[in-house]
Write a structure and sequence with these properties.
Layout: E1 5-6, E2 9-10, H1 25-29, E3 35-36, H2 37-41, E4 55-57, E5 73-74, E6 80-81, E7 85-87, H3 96-104, E8 108-111, H4 117-129, E9 134-135, H5 147-157, E10 162-165, E11 174-178, H6 180-183, E12 198-199, E13 206-207, H7 212-222, E14 226-230, E15 236-241, H8 242-247, E16 266-269, H9 275-285, E17 289-292, H10 300-312, E18 317-323, H11 326-335, E19 339-342, H12 352-356, H13 362-373, E20 380-383, H14 389-397, E21 402-405, H15 407-410, E22 420-422, E23 425-431, H16 436-440, E24 463-467, H17 472-489, H18 495-504, E25 508-511, H19 514-519
Length: about 525
């Protein structure tokens, strides 16, 4: 017992106050526990827009292990994801490989539209046809391929085995396979593969329709590293690799269509008349959600497109955007949008706010639009400005159902493009869809609504590079665990609970000064190395 206390009394004789089950109202309202989102964003005398870095979430009472935190949430009114992560429809971020891996990890990928409508539909089809462990687009060789070409492809692609078909393409008649063992002792680079490959009659193959379990058993019994899958015409339809079977175990969180058990996949379209034909091809390919992709979504063009999509393809959910105010959101919800994409000019490669002087700080945009859309049961996706797991947690705590990421995913193995080295650092290209390079490839339609040919392009983005982040199979679990830790520290057991507490005022925040932001990061060191996992 301290000197100041004796038998429950202070030294001055005042009786000690008994502690209650909850903190007293005076302390709660004093700011000692932080402030409600309404006080920060609505009762905002400074009229300032807030970013993620401007805010910090107040800690809460932890009454559950981190493994019990439920991060599942809705992307649209009809689509729920076990992991609230969405890859952005950018040509340096999401094609079929990114979309497949995102879906296997419990999120979803949105295929970009900087390609022909037919090519985009094929990308969607690759996702929908994907079977865990089956390679549906292996690199094939033709009978005329030489050893020199094989060695170059091995070096470029880091593959050791290639099927050989009569056409040199997937779907051709299988005539053999090349492995390291076949080419190890051949010296003449001009020798054709037909002279040293393992011929078709010596191959162990599986018939189209084989299950993963059956294929695994065949590989185990044959002691082979590769198993070609052929149809009744002996045409190659897939390839199964022992190494991939070991990597691709069951994915219990995988985002799948409840009707056909195919992986979920999204795709982006514009608002021009020919995008209606694009949408038809995407719907025929089995796309689950279409994102109407505009930098400023509150337009007559997007409203007309949303109405068309809901009438022509009622089985496909539609996400409208981008928006940053409730009035913008209102028009798209009224048109029939099943979800909203929130963010304008805040991506790492976006210059819209600088060039056009229009946009909004992202934390303010997410809070206000999510609060309004919630009245109609419409989830929102926070798009842009995500630089860390802390930003993801803040976006979810401000009412977002999911977060959309570009730069966070662009450096992964599954993103389109090749790695290159600069100053000893392994990098991948990353560009904004408003950059001149992306506009020249078709991205201009996202930013221009003039029916006449635009001769002067105004860039609203830049091109750059991001560092290598490795495979999504390791990176997404790291992001997931970071978000779980953040919600646990806030005393929040689920994303759904975070929204309830946001709107009933029990989830508290505080605005950070520039000095507080510096204090909250790494500081005071001569040098340091930052490793994610």
């Amino acid at each position: 017992m301290s000197e100041t206390q004796t038998n429950g009394y202070h030294k001055n004789g005042d009786k000690r106050q008994k502690i209650g089950s909850e903190i007293d109202e005076e302390t709660l309202n004093s700011g000692a526990e932080g402030f409600t989102a309404e006080k920060i964003f609505v009762n905002n005398p400074s009229c300032m827009g807030m970013t993620y870095d401007d805010l910090i979430v107040m800690p809460g009472h932890i009454a559950f292990p981190v493994g019990d935190v439920d991060i599942s949430s809705n992307l649209t009114r009809n689509i729920r994801l076990q992991v609230p992560f969405v890859s952005s429809p950018m040509d340096t971020v999401t094609e079929h490989q990114m979309a497949i891996t995102m879906a296997l990890q419990g999120g979803i990928g949105i295929i970009h539209s900087n390609m022909t409508a037919e090519e985009q539909a094929q990308e969607v089809l690759k996702v929908k046809k994907f079977k865990n462990g089956f390679i549906l687009d292996p690199m094939c060789l033709s009978p005329d391929t030489t050893l020199g070409e094989v060695l170059k492809r091995k070096a470029d692609l880091n593959f050791s085995s290639f099927p050989v078909t009569d056409t040199g393409k997937m779907g051709g008649r299988l005539i053999g396979i090349i492995s390291n063992r076949d080419s190890a002792f051949i010296e003449d680079p001009n020798v054709k593969v037909t002279e040293f490959m393992t011929a078709r009659d010596s191959l162990v193959v599986a018939k189209d329709g084989v299950s993963l379990e059956e294929a695994n058993q065949i590989l185990k019994e044959s002691k082979k590293g590769k198993l070609p899958v052929v149809n009744d015409n002996d045409e190659l339809v897939a390839l199964i690799a022992r190494t991939d079977l070991q990597k691709n175990k069951d994915n219990p969180r995988a985002s799948k269509d409840s009707h056909n058990k195919q992986l979920l996949c999204g795709a982006a379209i514009g608002t021009r008349p020919d995008d209606k034909k694009r949408a038809q091809l995407l719907a025929d390919a089995g796309v689950n959600v279409i994102v109407v992709d505009s930098s400023q979504g509150d337009s007559i063009y997007q409203i007309e497109m949303i109405k068309h999509l809901k009438a022509a393809h009622p089985q496909v959910d539609v996400i409208g955007g981008n928006v940053v105010t409730p009035s913008q959101a209102h028009h798209l919800i009224e048109a029939g949008a099943d979800g909203l994409r929130v963010g304008m000019g805040i991506g790492s490669i976006c210059t819209t706010q600088e060039v056009c002087a229009v946009g909004r700080a992202q934390a303010s945009a997410v809070y206000h639009v999510a609060k309004y859309a919630r009245k109609f049961g419409i989830p929102i996706t926070a798009d842009g400005g995500i630089q860390s797991t802390g930003h993801i947690t803040k976006a979810l705590c401000l009412g977002a159902g999911c977060v959309m990421m570009g730069s966070m995913l662009a450096g992964t193995d599954e993103a389109p493009g090749e790695y290159f080295y600069q100053d000893g650092v392994r990098l991948k290209r990353y560009r904004g869809m408003g950059s001149i390079e992306a506009m020249n490839a078709g991205g201009e339609k996202r930013y221009v609504w003039d029916t006449a040919q635009s001769h002067v392009k105004v860039a609203q983005g830049v091109s750059g590079a991001v560092t290598d982040k490795g495979t999504l199979r390791r990176y997404i679990p790291y992001l997931m665990q970071g978000v779980r830790h953040g919600l646990q520290d806030a005393g929040i057991p689920s994303v759904e609970a975070s929204r309830d507490r946001l709107y009933n005022g029990t989830l508290r925040f505080e605005i950070r000064s520039p000095a507080a932001q510096r204090e909250g990061g790494v500081h005071g060191l001569h040098s340091y190395q930052k490793r994610l996992y």
